[in-house]
Design brief:
The chain is mostly helical. It contains 23 helices and five strands. A five-stranded mixed β-sheet has the order 2-1-3-5-4, covered by helices on one side. A hairpin with a 2-residue loop joins strand 4 and strand 5. The longest helix is centred in the last third of the chain and has 36 residues.
Length: 502
């Protein structure tokens, strides 16, 4: 299927433009109280961008090379800062509002290219994406997913056209998109796997072409990430940072995965329900793939590519998290499947209505309308709960009022000179120390690496900044540290303290 310019033209996307504008202003509303949301990962992106702007290299809040995240997103922020002379905290709401608008507009254009496009279907789906708590949360924070999700949509467009037209141009565009996605998030590797699967199972290609294209696609798409990994190994000896092993079973992982799906439907998180929803999700993607692959009209179209993309991401996340311990699955980690899931669940509806009688159209139309109203009501309730929290206290994280107004944070902001610059600072939230004070602070070692923990215990002449509310069970607790290290109290508060090794 050739991507025609009119799919994404302004004249055929007035509804997409309206959705994009509303999305832009929603992010401005969420950010109005205290600015763009800042999480621990956001501080890494922010500090890396600031250091790059000032020519200090790709280093993090601890003055060490960034290895936990790839290069593209901090560099993207750096470029904007360089030309605007503004800090990412200043342009964050406008940037994220614009990116959310682009996501909505591109989504609308893709739905114009479905096998059986429908104006009412497109508008309902745009509203669902616009009101999605997962999408709103992602675009409320300074996170790399804000670009990653758009790159996934671009991949669906480019690869669908490559499968249909077999042109070198679309093949190279797909490679470029995959390369950028891998350099934006390490999880972008799933797009390479997706592309390889789409090529390998394309019956229109000879086996010789499939193998050759797979080799070219895989090797070139991985090249930018490989350069990033080589740099990481050279600077730190770690390919992608410390990655503790996960010892939990596959069913427990599927329970965590399905728990996010329960949240999307405002259902109570129950283990069996969460696991069942995960299985249903995987089956839904498989059915959508088989249906569209066997249909002459929609074969290798947008619906097929997006279903394969969604399925591979689910499998990739479940398998990799069984070996490496991620944070427990959240809206953020599973946001790449939201739009493919929405499309896979509903893309058949327009064609279904065109093939039934007027009487059945009324019956099924009312049924689908009730389901749509229920789902939108679920989303609006979740959105209002989110807005009710951020309008008075700010987006959760390091710009939220309870954190900003805490005594330990106020002390760090006003007493930076209490620290001897010759003595290193450790913290259970080093990124928080940097964010509120601008002072470099190293993270405490993870308990999964006992040699590093012991090295910290035996080390002398260092500060410890402790946040009670940011206690991380993967790190040594304050009681253990004080038992193993001879430390004096510099300043102590109900919500944290500053300590110095004697």
């Amino acid at each position: 299927m050739k991507v025609k310019s009119h799919l994404f033209s302004l004249s055929n996307n007035l509804d997409s433009i309206l959705a994009a504008l509303i999305g832009f202003f929603l992010i401005q509303i969420f950010s109005r109280h205290s600015g763009i949301g800042i999480s621990p990962d956001s501080v890494t992106y922010l500090s890396a961008a600031r250091h790059l702007v000032h020519g200090k290299g790709f280093i993090s809040f601890d003055d060490l090379p960034v290895v936990d995240f790839p290069f593209a997103y901090p560099f993207f922020l750096t470029v904007i800062s360089f030309f605007t002379r503004l800090d990412p905290l200043q342009f964050g709401p406008l940037l994220n509002g614009l990116l959310f608008g682009i996501l909505l507009y591109v989504s609308g254009g893709i739905m114009n290219g479905f096998n059986k496009p429908s104006a009412w279907y497109k508008r309902i789906l745009l509203i669902c994406i616009l009101l999605s708590p997962a999408m709103q949360e992602v675009y409320s924070y300074l996170w790399s997913e804000t670009i990653f999700l758009i790159l996934i949509l671009f991949f669906i467009i480019s690869f669908s056209n490559y499968l249909k037209q077999h042109t070198t141009g679309w093949f190279l565009i797909s490679i470029l998109i995959c390369s950028l996605a891998c350099l934006t998030r390490y999880a972008g590797v799933f797009l390479i796997i997706t592309g390889l699967c789409l090529i390998f199972f394309n019956g229109a290609f000879t086996w010789r072409k499939r193998i050759l294209d797979c080799v070219l696609f895989g090797s070139i798409s991985f090249s930018l990430l490989l350069i990033n990994i080589i740099r990481n190994l050279k600077d730190t000896g770690l390919a992608m940072g410390p990655r503790p092993r996960n010892d939990e079973g596959i069913l427990k992982i599927m329970e965590y995965f399905g728990g996010v799906l329960c949240d999307w439907l405002l259902l109570d998180r129950k283990p069996l329900l969460a696991i069942a929803l995960t299985f249903i999700l995987l089956i839904l993607f498989v059915v959508t793939i088989l249906f569209n692959k066997n249909s002459k009209k929609s074969k290798y179209g947008f619906e097929y590519t997006m279903a394969v993309t969604g399925l591979i991401y689910c499998i990739f996340m479940i398998i990799t998290s069984s070996y490496t311990r991620y944070e427990q699955f959240t809206n953020r980690l599973l946001s790449p499947i939201f739009i493919p899931l929405l499309w896979s669940f509903s893309c058949w509806i327009s064609g279904f209505f065109k093939n039934i009688s007027i009487r059945l159209k009324w019956i099924y139309g009312i049924l689908f309308l009730l389901i749509t109203v229920w789902f939108l009501n679920v989303q609006v309730r979740a959105d209002y709960e989110y807005y009710d929290g951020v309008k008075d206290a700010g987006i959760p994280g390091y710009r939220e009022d309870p954190f900003v107004q805490s005594e330990i944070v106020q002390f760090l902001e006003k007493n930076k000179n209490v620290f001897d610059p010759r003595i290193p600072i450790y913290s259970n939230a080093g990124e928080a120390v940097y964010f509120v004070s601008g002072i470099a602070a190293r993270q405490l070692p993870f308990l999964d690496f006992p040699a590093q923990v012991q090295q910290y215990y035996t080390g002398n002449n260092n500060y410890l900044v402790w946040f009670n509310d940011l206690d991380n069970p993967s790190m040594p607790d304050l009681k253990s540290i004080l038992q193993h290290k001879n430390m004096v109290t510099v300043k102590e508060f109900p919500d944290g303290g500053v300590y110095l090794t004697k």
